[in-house]
Specification:
Distance between the termini: 31 Å
Number of helices: 8
Shape: globular
Oligomer: single chain
CATH class of the largest domain: Alpha Beta
Bound molecules: flavin-adenine dinucleotide
Order of helices and strands: EHEEHEEHEEEHEEEEEEEEHHEEEHH
Radius of gyration: 21 Å
Number of domains: 3
Largest sheet: 8 strands, mixed
Length: about 375
């Protein structure tokens, strides 16, 4: 984003802010909630409006945990963070009447090799005391060759969920207000230049995920904007097709679920289109990915005879190792960040936001999500 000479004439009013959050997605709203709980006066500045980024464009699956290939201590820590996230989200949903269904998740195998990998994962989960059940067959009779079910996962209406988190945060939202420059004035104050105001903030937390590279060069090479796409059919006569579970296959490259109004939603299709879908913040759909999703629909759901009523895209922030990044900008110690959710921000966002706020307010360690690991490795 650039700002022309004419747009910034120096007349933006100055506003003093205690705790400024940038970005009103699930992570920014959760951060505002935690900072508010800690007694801080919170303002969120957002370039669009509440949850118009990835947080309302996702598939709404809360699948706890991270990939089992991380070293065991990291896996365990991230599992606990994700479990905490789910607990928070179910609480927000329940208190605010947000549509949620705790029908579990099912990882499905496209090939015998993937089935073997799921079986190995099941063994690892069992050893860790994680509830799961592996079967060599396809519970839905739709051409998969193995399934790993986890009973505790959930699907949700993600847009309503972010609005609920925002409501409980008690924060003020300044919408249509893009941040374009940050200066750490001195040890106490950060000046944040935005379209409508010049904020003087005691603390700033960037929750700008995929868009962070446009804010500070620190994020270049650390968070890559990556497009994700979905389609949804018209409501179907006989539903649910998938028992309302959060389903995925091909190691997560495809994901699908029943919606609350009886549609089939399918997302993913990026694996064979990576060049096209990487390094972009353009959230329009693309033909190759939509054709890939349609081919998947015809392959596994040939009986679904309904038009596709909606197609959309959203921009994820992929970190280099797939885990979120939390830290402070090197030259701006009062500016923290919680970014890089790599397609798992519903599953990891709230717990990560909690740690980021704690870090800024108390100096607490953020553990496995510490962005310092990237420079160290
Ligand atoms: C198609 C798709 C499917 C997905 N499915 C799932 C799923 O099922 N489960 C799951 O866990 N995750 C899923 N994800 C990922 C998940 O949606 C994200 O990880 C999560 O929403 C990230 O939240 P966030 O708040 O960090 O980012 P965002 O929701 O993108 O919020 C960032 C906000 O910052 C604002 N912003 C950016 N720059 C500025 C600026 N300069 N000034 C002011 N505001 C700014 C943006 O407008 C935006 O609102 C999916 C993502 C996509 C795209």
């Amino acid at each position: 984003m650039t700002v022309s000479l004419w747009q910034v004439n120096g007349s933006q009013p100055i506003r003093e802010v205690d705790f400024l959050v940038v970005g009103a997605g699930i992570v920014g709203c959760a951060a505002a909630y935690f900072a508010g709980q800690a007694g801080r006066q919170v303002v969120i500045t957002e370039m669009r409006d509440i949850a118009l980024g990835a947080s309302s464009r996702n598939a709404g699956m809360i699948v706890v945990g991270v990939d089992s290939s991380y070293p065991l201590p990291v896996f365990r820590e991230m599992w606990a963070l994700s479990q905490r996230t789910q607990d928070y989200l179910l609480g927000f949903a329940e208190r605010n009447g947000v549509a949620v269904n705790r029908s579990g998740s099912v990882a499905l195998a496209e090939t015998p090799a993937e089935a073997k990998a799921l079986q190995a994962q099941a063994k690892m989960f069992e050893a860790e005391g994680i509830a799961c059940e592996y079967t060599d067959s396809d519970p839905f009779g739709r051409g998969w060759c193995g399934a790993l079910r986890r009973p505790d996962d959930a699907v949700v209406q993600p847009y309503e969920l972010v609005q609920a988190v925002f409501k409980e945060s008690g924060a003020e939202l300044v919408a249509n207000n893009e941040l374009y420059h940050i200066v750490q004035d001195d040890a106490e104050v950060v000046t944040v230049y935005t379209r409508q105001y010049t904020f003087k903030a005691r603390q700033v937390l960037l929750c700008t995920n995929a868009y962070s590279v446009h804010i500070d060069p620190y994020f270049v090479g650390k968070v890559t904007p990556t497009r994700g796409q979905c389609l949804a059919t018209a409501p179907l006569p006989h539903t649910p097709l998938l028992g309302n579970a959060a389903c995925h296959s091909d190691h997560g490259y495809f994901y699908f679920r029943d919606t609350f109004d009886g549609r089939l939603l399918i997302g993913g299709g990026r694996k064979t289109n990576k060049l096209l879908e990487g390094s972009t913040t353009d959230d329009r759909t693309t033909e190759p990915v939509q054709r890939t999703l349609e081919a998947y629909l015809w392959k596994h759901f040939p009986d679904v005879d309904a038009p596709i009523e909606r197609r959309w895209a959203g921009i994820m922030g992929f970190s280099v190792d797939g885990l979120p990044l939390v830290g402070r900008l090197p030259d701006k110690p009062r500016v923290g960040f919680a970014v890089g959710f790599t397609g798992h921000g519903l599953a990891l966002g709230v717990g990560t936001a909690e740690r980021a706020v704690d870090m800024l307010l108390t100096g607490a360690s953020v553990g496995a999500v510490d962005a310092g690991r990237i420079n160290r490795n």
